[in-house]
Amino acid sequence: MQELTAGRLRRGTTDPLLPVAALALLSVAAAALDAAVLCWASIGALAGFSLSGSV
Q: Is the pTM above the cut of 0.85?
């Protein structure tokens, strides 16, 4: 059994896959519901997240 070290824990919590996937699902759901403002807000959040250097 592998030990859970601080480095592995930090990598797991800062992995960008989870927030990007959640924002992408939110934007698709908002587009399906004709919630244009929420759709554009979630797409803007995706763009801001990618431009911030977090990815």
A: no
**Tens of pLDDT, residues 16-45:** 777 788 888 888 888 888 888 887 888 888
d(CA 29, CA 35): 9
In whole angstroms, give the CA distance from residue 21 to residue 49. 12
Is residue 43 exposed (0-12), middle (13-18) or buried (19+ Cβ within 10 Å)?
A: middle
- Residue 47 structure tokens: 């763009």
- Under 8 Å between Cβ of 55 and 16: yes
